[in-house]
Specification:
21 strands; alpha/beta; Lyase, Ornithine Decarboxylase, Chain A, domain 1; nine-stranded mixed beta sheet; 413 residues; TIM Barrel
Length: 413
Amino acid sequence: MQAFHYNLGDFICEQVPVESIATRFGTPVYIYSQAAILDNFRRIEQGLSRIPHLLCYSVKANSNLKILALLLRAGAGFDIVSGGELARALRAGAKADRVVFSGVGKTEGEIDAGLQAGILMFNVESAGELDVIGNRAPHLGRRADISIRINPDVQTETHPYISTGQRIHKFGVPKAEAAALCKRAARSEHLRVRGLACHIGSQILEVEPFLQALDELLGVARELSMDGIDVELLDMGGGFGIRYSDEQPLDLDRLTQGVETRITGTPYRLILEPGRAVVGNAGILVTQVLYVKRNQPKNFIVVDAGMSDLMRPSLYGSYHEVVPLRPSTRETLRADVVGPLCETGDFLAENREMSDVHSGELLAILTAGAYGYALASNYNTRPRPAEVLVHGDQMELVRRRESVEDLMATETF
């Protein structure tokens, strides 16, 4: 759906003028569309409706409790990568047996928390981690359900910081070693091998790498079956690319058709872990123009949001479209949209041709629902923004703006 659009000169989220949200809650402010989140989730669900599956929303993309609860009611499980994300999922009402614990550096405390909660499985990323899980399980009187995360050595076209599926990356077990590690786990009375997993990266726009990775999982599963180890779950991870500028988003219909062709008639249940594809285009960041510096040869639009609020442009060089809340017929200005932080890398857009703006006007940074607030920091002792969820003609504050007092509450001197 087109959750954010212009209507009679106003920029609208569903049925609510965005300017009214900014007026009520201040800026910077994150705004999410409930309808867009649910539409995105249901589209993936429907594409997989003919095969056994579980969609585990990737909590790291956007971990707001209200959004987790919303997706829980829609039928989501959850993919987590920390003890904190486990606590969030459980706080939102998730059943632990629909939670997958991924992540390359699980601590003993996090493993204990997962065991005590009774999660669906740990995606194990190394022999060392397998040993720790195997040692902790009997201490807690539990048998640990696990899958082995395979590094399938699949090359993808994405930013190198978010590519995860090649041998040079820290994630997973080399596919040549995966079967042996599964066999080792199967010999332990404290471990139960439930599945195989992989994750090849984030913001991937081509279908073929996903299907290639699934073929790798199926190959290892067949090898294990011949040795008497029958897994039931194949976790393909996530990383489904969306449109930020003029790129073509991942063809989810073709992906789900390819997956269905491979899974139909097998004994396996599929797990997918979408995050960005669910919330990315369902959120924006609204910011106010503070100053316009008309320099030669460079112009700057200084706004009250910065890299502490939206890290992606500085971290990855990511593109986010920037639009005014009220379109104008003024001449255009080529400028960098920059924040107030004391870093040259504090920018939201570079060398952007856009309508000239004045101090006090509001801009929307689009497609900011994923890895926006989740990556936010308090650099320069800046409180993080408020978050607002829109449903139809209603707006709800789902996280209040931090105060400076909040930031100092855990400190002593």
